[in-house]
Amino acid sequence: MSPTRTLRSDWPFRRPAVVLAGGGALGAYEVGVLRVLEAVGFRPAIVAGVSVGAVNAVVWQAHARSTAALESVWRRMGAADVGFRWVTLVLRALGGLVAALGAIELLLTLAGSRELSGAFWFWKRGSARVDLTSTLLDLWMWGAFALAGILAVALSRRVESWLARRRPGPDPLRASRAFGRVLLGLWLLYAVVWVFGLPWPHRFTVSALLVTTVVWLANRPGRSSGWARLVLHGLMAETRGRGLWSGEARRRLVEGLVAAGEPARLVDPEVRLVIGALAIDSGRICHFVAGPRPSDEFARRLERELGEVVTVREPAEVVRAALASSAIPGVFEPERIGGRDFVDPGGFANQPLHVALAADADAAVVVLLSPSGRPSAAPAPGSLFALGSRLLEIANWRDMQAELRDLPAGWSREGDPARVCVVEPDSALPGGVLDFDPEHATSLIRRGEEDAWAALERAGWLEAAVA
After folding, report:
1. How many alpha carbons lie under 13 Å from residue 47 in its C-beta half-sphere?
2. DSSP letters along 392-418, please?
3. Average pLDDT, integer, range 459-464
C-alpha cells in the first residue's frame, strides 16, 4: 500500500462513479480496489454494482466507504456462509433415493412372494415348484435385460443414424394415449397372473412396468407430467426446484454487515446507489436507485437499453435489491420484490458502466474481475459447475467488450487525467466464481490493491510521488 499517495490536487471531476462488476467469489478482488479508493480519499457521486459488486457496494456505502468490515468477512468467509450447503443436497438426494428404492422394493417383495400372492390369500395354495420356476424366469429375464443393455451401447451409433433418417412419427398426443392403453393392458395382465399365482418373472415384470409408467407419466401432456416434475423438483434442496439453495444465508450475511454500519447511508441524498437485477417477468434489467431522485432522462436512457428504473427509499429495500442482484440463476432461488421475481443479471449486463453514464457521471473507476483483452485460457471444464462458471466468464467478457467499445465521445482510458480508470487483473484470478475460500480471498484482495494503484497511476489520477 502507498499511504502517501492521494488524488491529484487539480483533479477536475465532480461527479465520479465507481462501477463494480459481478463475479461471485472473485468479488474479494474488488475489496482490495475499494481499499485503495478509501486510502486516496476518493468520494464517488455514483456507485453502481451488479451481483457480488452490488453486495460489496451496499456494505461499503453502509460503512461510510470504509473497507474494514468487507475485508474482515471476506478473509474468513467460506462457501457455507453464502449459502452453498452441499450437505443439504446430499441428504435430499440420498433421502429421495432411499425412499424411492424402499417403495420399489416393497412392491417387488409383494409381487415376488408366494406367501403374499393372490393364490395364497384366496385359495391358500402354495407350491415350491412354482416359486422356483418364477425365480428362474426372473433370472433369465434379468440376464436378457443386461444383454439388451450391452447391445444398446454397442449399436448406439447405428440407432442414432437410423433415427436421424427416420421421418417424423405420428401425432405425439395420440401416440401417448395409445401407449397408455397398452400399458394399462399390461398391468391388468400382470394382475391376473398375480391373482392366480402363475409361474412368472414377477420382480422383473413389476420393475419394467414401474419404470415404463413413470417415464410415460413424465412425458405425456397434462397434469400427470406436471405432477411427475413436481415430485422430481421436490427432491431439490430447500427451494422447491427454483434453485439449488435458498437465499437465507446471503440474507443473514448482508443484513448483519449493513446493521453493523449505518444503514441510513444506503439512502444518502449525496450519493446515488444503483443496483441491477434481472426481472424474470419482463426480461428487463431493473435498476434499483437509492439516493438522489433519478431524472426522467436517466430513466429514458436506461429504458432504451431494455432496462427499467425503480426508486427505493428505505435501507431494507436496498438490501433486498442487492440480494436479488446476487441470486445466481439455478444456484439460488429468485428474490421476490413487490410480487416480482429477480435474479443475478450477470450473463446479460455485468459491467454497469452505461448506468454511470446515464446518471451523468463525468469520470468512472470500473472494476473488472477478468482481463478485458480476451477470455482467460482455461482447460476443458471437468464438471457442470465448472462449465457454468466458464460460460458466465465468457458472457461477462462479451458484455464488457460492448461497454468499453461504446464509450461516448470524450470518454477514454487515455488522457491526463483519463475519464475512465479501468482496474483489472492482467491474468485470470485464482479460484472461480463459486470458489469461496478465505485463502483465495486474501490473495484476491492483495491483487486488487496492487492493480488499483497501478491503474490510478496510468489514468493520471494520483498526485506525483514525493521523492
Report:
1. 29
2. HHHHHHHHHHHHHHTPPTT--S-BTTB
3. 91
Q: Locate 113 and state its grid cell.
A: 412372494
Run of H or E residues at 439: helix 438-458
Cell of 175: 401416440
Strands 420-423 and 363-367: parallel
378-382: average pLDDT: 67
The span from the CA of 134 to the CA of 466, in Å, is: 94
Distance (Å, whole) CA 313 – CA 292: 10
CA 115, 120, 123 angle in degrees (round to 5)?
170
Q: What amino acid is encoded at 400 in this protein?
A: M
CA gap 289, 268 in Å, rounded: 11
Strand-strand pairing, 285-290 and 330-332: unpaired
Spatial separation of the C-alpha atoms in residues 104 and 215, rounded to whole Å: 15
Q: Is 277 helix (H, G, I), strand (E, B) or coil?
A: strand
Determine how many CB atoms are found less than 10 A away from the CB of residue 99.
Answer: 11
DSSP assignment string, 171-230 = -HHHHHHHHHHHHHHHHHHHHHHHHHT----HHHHHHHHHHHHHHHHHHSSSHHHHHHHH
CB 16 within 8 A of CB 50: no
* CA 457 – CA 144 distance, rounded (Å): 74
Residue scoring higher pLDDT (440 or 206) = 440
Separation of CA 355 from chain center: 23
Whether residue 84 contacts residue 397, with contact meaning beta carbons closer than 8 Å, is answered with no
Helix (H) or strand (E) holding 240: none
Q: What is the Cα–Cα distance from 267 to 315, expressed in whole angstroms? A: 6
Cα separation, 451 vs 29, whole angstroms? 9
Helix (H, G, I), strand (E, B) or coil at 28: helix
Evaluate whether 250 touches 323 at the Cβ level (below 8 Å): yes
Contact 280, 342 (CB under 8 A): yes
CA distances in angstroms from 299 to 80, 169, 303, 360, listed in the order given: 38, 51, 6, 12
Confidence of residue 1 (pLDDT cuts 50, 70, 90): very low
Our CA dihedral for 424, 427, 432, 438, rounded to 10 degrees, sits at -80
Predicted structure pTM score = 0.74
CA gap 45, 164 in Å, rounded:
60
* Cα 429 to Cα 375: distance, rounded to the nearest angstrom: 12
Three cell numbers, residue 284: 428487463
How confident is the model at residue 242, as a pLDDT?
74
Q: Which pLDDT tens digit goes with each residue over 198-241?
A: 777 777 787 788 878 877 876 666 555 556 555 555 555 445 55
Pair 342, 278: CB distance under 8 Å: yes
